[in-house]
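Repro case for the chain-ordering regression, as requested:
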Amino acid sequence: MYIVWLLLFQSLIAFILVTTNVNGLEWTQYHNLDEIYEWSNELEDRFSPFVTVYTMGYSYEKRPIKAIKISSRSGNQAIFIESSIHAIEWISSAVSTCFFNNLLNSNDTNLQDLLLHYDWFLVPVMNPDGFVYTHEVNRWWRKNRKPTGVSNATGPCYGTDLNRNFNYEWSKSGYQINDPCDHWYHGAAPDTEPEILALQNFINGFPDNYIRLYLALHSYGNFVLLPYGHTIEIFPPNYDQMMRIAQGFAEAALVRYNTTFKYGASGLLNYSGYVSGDAKDWAYGMKNIPFAATIELRDSGHYGFLLPADQIIEVCNEFTDGMVGLIKAAEKETILIPKI
Ligand SMILES: [Zn+2]
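-- result from build under test --
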């Protein structure tokens, strides 16, 4: 059996290496939702049965929320990545798709090992309605686009901050985000938004302990933010272990361009203060995924949310380096155990 999948995997690598132009994305510009989804479907067409595209559910405006899975064999543990839950943070989906492209196209043995040893999931655009809105109407939009039913002087107020709406210590940050017209509005109650319910249903469909790492990509600030976001009075049971894994990311991501990532509980580090009801805390606190983090990509504030597209490749490179370091550290801590 081992020989069979090894041969199959080697043929996948050989196939990938001769098929250089595998997709329609270029990471020299930011792409819209249609282009990202077209690229996803093309990956599935080219790399079936190793790549599968799922529709996890639909956004408020009925756009599909897609997840891409790469699996070279059965029995692997899984790593889950999501991006563009905040519509304004374009670099997050640019880098997550670029990273998947690196995984599938690299002749670097470190990345080939990652491809062989783990199942990979990517939700490139968690918030498709908001993402489309930033491309077509307002570059500065953050939330989804579901009407709140409340109006202010500017008219009806739309949208909930999806990364404040998860049902784990929801509304416990002490930071008032209960104004439906606020950019950080956390919703009228936890788990009200169709986008995060789609994600939760999808993840709930997998066996316990299958997903071992959960990474939410955001910008900006260059941080690896660990649970918890809502308090610094208590820390997660394996906080020291998560810190060592985050250190693995930061040390590896530093090498190429000298980009410094700070790491620690998001309640300690997040520039916007406490956060509650976010995806990483839900993944850790409700789903018992033993390493969960929000990774805030470049930069440290010069361009902020409007990071120029000519930095995408560099951010992708340092993220890819960081992931290799993070996974080595997670293996050392036996949070990840590669199948032999
Ligand atoms: Zn964000």
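Ordering looks correct now. The chain has one domain: 35-333.
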